[in-house]
Amino acid sequence: MAFQVSPFLQGRQQPLRLINPVMVAQEAVGHLKRLFQKMRGRSNPCALDLPVEIILMVVAYLDGCSLASLSLTCKSLHGLWDPYSMPLILPDKEKLLLWLERDIPYIYYCHHCTKLHRWHGRWSRSIAPFYLERLLCKQNSDNHFYIPITCQIPYHHARLVMNRHLYGRNHGLPLHVLNERARSSHHPDGVIDSRSQHARIFNQQLLILSTISMTHRRGDPLALRDHIDRAGHLVCKHLTLRQGYPDSYPTPLPQLAKGTGPDAFLACSLVNGSCNSCLTDYTIDIIWQGAKKGYRIEVLVYRGLGDCRTPFSWHWRTASRLFRDEQPRLAYSSEYRLGGVREQWNKAGYMA
């Protein structure tokens, strides 16, 4: 019996066509070309103006971090990197996030959780109070430069200040956010102390000057002496104003050693000193103002916090933590000579 073709199908039969792999590849490349042409503007030359074949050849030489960065530039290239089939190892992930921190405003990189966090413009008002409550990552809540009374700077604030200096105003906080006006405290024993803080940047390094001033409202040198021995402020993690045992740690400033006279102080004028362990220099001034006013003690503390690119750097580590077996600062670099931070501060003031 002969096979009858339905009238409905008559005239609709198409001959079978063999698939040519070369033509399929050409069609795929052509599709990519048309897609790239839609995404790019003819008036703005860019990397997509290159032939697709060249783009794919370039991609073949990229590592995972660079490929991920390229895939984030536009929708046309978004599919070049698959995070599931090509996961980034931790160093490459950190490298990529640091690139994004540099390019995207209002975010900062957290070394503790390896993520990007958003910061807000209202942080520009002050670093205190309640600066720890602002953190999106609580893992680094204790990672701040903390010298009681005299200097308290969270690391993420210092980083954002340097980000603004390096990448532009929308990438961080203004330098003045680290400044603090002079504040005075009146103690029950009659001692009045005041402290202030100022910040500068010199040679891509963050510098902090803390000023400490102490006097007695009735000019009683013995009461002032007793107050310093009991509650003297820290100069850094390794030096203190407080007098203790000769082998105590932190070490008392030698200029504040007890005198042999009835006043229990040895007057000195603008004597310079330095910490041997961290980048801290100081200048101390002990002035006799007469029987009514007594002594006035003023200490200028110069601190070098480095470039604040990582909380694990030597600068930040030695400034924020106490290590009894810390090597002398000159053992790390000849640039860390005693008095070098004070010189940098003065040079930054001349250039301002």
Features:
352 residues; single chain; two-stranded antiparallel sheet; 8 helices; alpha+beta; 2 domains
- Specify the structural class: alpha+beta
Low-confidence stretches: 1-14
Q: Structurally, how many domains make up the residues? A: 2
Radius of gyration: 32 Å
Lateral strand order in the biggest sheet: 5-6-7-12-11-10
- Quick one: biggest sheet? 6 strands, antiparallel
Q: Would you tell me the overall average pLDDT?
A: 79
Helix content: 25-40%
Q: How many distinct helices?
A: 8
Terminal-residue CA separation: 105 Å
Element order, helices and strands?
HHHHEEEEHEEEHEEEEEHH
Task: Compute the number of strand runs.
Answer: 12
> How much strand?
15-25%
Shape: elongated
Structural account:
This protein is of the alpha+beta class. It folds into two domains: about 90-170, no CATH class; about 180-350, no CATH class. Helix content is about 25%, strand content about 20%. It contains eight helices and twelve strands. It has helices at about 20-40, 50-60, 65-70, 90-105, 155-165, 220-230, 315-320, 340-350; strands at about 105-110, 115-120, 145, 150-155, 180-185, 190-200, 205-215, 240, 250, 270-275, 280-290, 295-305. A six-stranded antiparallel β-sheet has the order 5-6-7-12-11-10. It has a two-stranded antiparallel ribbon with strand order 1-2. A hairpin with a 4-residue loop joins strand 1 (about 105-110) and strand 2. Helix 3 runs parallel beside helix 4. The termini are far apart. Mean pLDDT is about 80; it is low at about 1-15.
